[in-house]
Amino acid sequence: MKTKLFFVYIMASENNRILYVRITNDIQRRVREHQEHLNQGFNWKYNVSKLVYFESFDFVEDAILREKQLKKWNREWKDNLIKKSNPLWNDLTPTL
User: Fold this and answer.
1) Closest residue by Cα to residue 13 from 28, 34, 32, 30
2) Does residue 22 form part of some domain?
3) What CATH number is associated with residue 54?
4) pLDDT the model gives residue 47
């Protein structure tokens, strides 16, 4: 039986100036929605379409706690987190 995973992810604008932190249970679908600008919200307004970081969790409660934690972080902390696993800020979509 397949276990459902939950993801906390960070999307960035093309120039990496804008970051967007969210949670999902279907990261491929959510990234596609960002990249195809299907929702006319924050990501559409700021062209936040590059997946630069993600973590997976077995339990939704853990993912929610992590999302809340990252949203409270200052920009420098988020940048350092991203640089640790993705130093060139590449789009990680192909790794999904």
Assistant:
1) 34
2) yes
3) 3.40.1440.10
4) 87
